[in-house]
């Protein structure tokens, strides 16, 4: 009888020990799960903070670039540039023109690269819509022309064409703004695009740059 009681007590002791071991494993698993979750959450929060910080830095850089003056840039009073739609030829005081009366149909300016000269009266209408117009003459190095074609080809509200009579080999124009650059790698190229593609000088921001006139 005593042996049976001893056996029962041992069995209960083993069961209790197994229960304690199981509870200990559960506690360890909970601790591991909580720790891993904390690490994951902290990592996500840290990554999210990094992304936000990076985005804020990029936005601040873009805003700073948009406010910074561009060296040797020429400006005209946008309010004094005519904006009438005309069907007769227009003589512009600068070449390429940066504004003035123009034809009612704009040049397509959604990453358009024109190999031939385009009508000024149509190109000016594109500037009114917030486009940047890249122009070059025979003195522009072929390698620079190619790089600028690639940039225009990736940038909505920009277009490019040759203008043989212009003073500088490579020039960039927006409504009321113009600069002659030294080449495709001139930092003023990116600065001009950042500042004036749909920039604050735009008389008609958001107006179409497609469904206009294409290369003839």
From TrEMBL:
Parts of the chain that traverse the membrane: 31-52
Pfam families xrefs: DUF3105
Keyword annotations: Membrane, Transmembrane, Transmembrane helix
InterPro entries listed in its UniProt record: DUF3105
Protein name: DUF3105 domain-containing protein
């Amino acid at each position: 009888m005593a042996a049976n009681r001893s056996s029962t007590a041992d069995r209960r002791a083993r069961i209790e020990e197994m229960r304690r071991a199981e509870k200990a494993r559960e506690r360890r698993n909970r601790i591991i799960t909580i720790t891993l979750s904390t690490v994951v959450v902290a990592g996500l929060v840290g990554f999210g903070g990094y992304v936000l910080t990076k985005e804020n830095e990029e936005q601040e850089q873009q805003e700073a670039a948009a406010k910074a003056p561009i060296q040797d840039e020429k400006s005209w009073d946008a309010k004094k540039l005519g904006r009438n739609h005309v069907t007769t030829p227009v003589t512009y005081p600068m070449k390429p023109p940066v504004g003035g009366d123009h034809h009612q149909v704009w040049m397509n300016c959604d990453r358009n690269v024109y190999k031939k000269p385009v009508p000024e009266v149509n190109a000016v209408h594109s500037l009114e819509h917030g486009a940047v117009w890249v122009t070059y003459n025979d003195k522009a190095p072929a390698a620079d022309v190619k790089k600028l074609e690639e940039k225009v080809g990736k940038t909505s509200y920009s277009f490019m064409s040759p203008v043989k009579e212009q003073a500088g080999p490579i020039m960039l124009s927006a409504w009321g703004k113009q600069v002659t650059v030294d080449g495709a790698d001139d930092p003023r190229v990116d600065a001009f695009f950042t500042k004036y593609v749909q920039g604050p000088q735009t008389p008609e921001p958001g107006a179409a740059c497609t469904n206009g006139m294409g290369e003839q």
